[in-house]
Design brief:
Blueprint lengths: L3 H30 E5 L6 E3 L11 E3 L3 E2 L13 H16 L4 E3 L11 E6 L22 E6 L3 H14 L3 E12 L2 E3 L3 E7 L2 E5 L9 E12 L4 E12 L3 H5 L8 H9 L12 H14 L9
Helix pairs in contact: 2-5
């Protein structure tokens, strides 16, 4: 009977070891299907597979698609037709870019890599984003979550790149997210929307209420079908009227806003006042390719 305490101790030790092993396996499994990064202020890109590649030359691009998360989102689920003109305009621009070889007929599985970039407490944020909150955070941080593609998607992309004779592809999606407001001096507010892109926010607005942002997300995929860089560029932000914020109502990107994006929303801080969506698309491609000389910044 004297050995009983030792047997119990060994049993407890075995249970602890097993629990630790299972926890480790769970973490590894989570990393295998996705990864979440806490972003610094003004950061919109993450290298997801080691050191970033050098400036990438010609890349394969395909038609811009809507973020699949919109299908189940209140206010966007039945509005795909309203986004169609903007998607068509983006495809036309991609076709004319010297950095890209556009393929309108490439057929890939549907389970492509997915990027969430926005507030850790945004409406479309994955559950993992909450883990990036720290005790000292006054407001939730911005995060980037990359859901990795399936093995079938990666293999199909690898084969497609081999047929095209290219080393990289860029996959782009149009969607919405929620960004936090930031300070501009003592009393002013602003929102950082992307590379060299910030816009003022009116003073009478709840500081802790998130802004609805129309954005482009993208990934750079190498010849093995592996995502090596991911990020996003915001196009426009829409704030909810102050009285509506009091009752926790959030403004969506409506059809009128989408029409304005296509025709009148311009970057007046850049030479020629280009359309905001054009600059966002150009900068997304330049950032993913690592071509800083191609960035359009003030």
């Amino acid at each position: 009977m004297a050995s009983a305490p030792m047997d119990v101790s060994r049993w407890i030790g075995s249970v602890v070891c097993l629990a630790a092993t299972l926890a480790g396996c769970a973490q590894l499994d989570q990393m295998a299907v996705g990864q979440t990064h806490r972003l610094e202020e003004g950061q919109f890109y993450v290298d997801t597979a080691g050191p970033p590649p050098g400036p990438v030359g010609s890349v394969l691009t395909m038609p811009v698609t809507l973020d699949p998360e919109l299908a189940g989102h209140l206010g966007y689920g039945d509005r795909s037709g309203e986004f169609a003109p903007l998607l068509a305009a983006m495809d036309a621009r991609l076709k004319g870019m010297p950095c890209c070889r556009f393929s309108a007929t490439a057929a890939l599985p549907s389970d492509a890599p997915h990027v969430y970039l926005g507030s850790a407490q945004g409406e479309l944020a994955p559950p993992e984003a909450e883990q990036q909150l720290l005790p000292h955070d006054r407001f939730p941080p911005m995060v980037l979550h990359l859901a990795r593609p399936s093995t079938e998607w990666s293999m199909a992309t690898r084969d497609l790149l081999a047929r095209e004779g290219l080393g990289h592809a860029v996959i782009i999606r149009l969607g919405v997210s929620q960004y936090p407001k930031g300070r501009d001096g003592v009393f002013g507010k602003q929102v950082l929307l992307g590379t060299g892109h910030q816009e003022p926010i009116r003073f009478l607005t709840a500081e802790d209420k998130l802004l609805e942002v129309l954005q482009l997300t993208g990934v750079l995929v190498d010849a093995s079908g592996r995502v090596v860089r991911a990020g996003a560029e915001g196009i426009i932000a829409r704030d909810t009227p102050f009285l509506a914020q009091v009752v926790d109502v959030t403004r969506v990107i409506d059809d009128e806003s989408l029409r304005q994006v296509l025709t009148t929303e311009r970057r007046t801080d850049l030479t020629g006042d280009p359309l905001k969506w054009e600059v966002a698309l150009d900068n997304l491609l330049a950032q993913l390719r690592g071509d800083r000389a191609a960035l359009r910044v003030p």
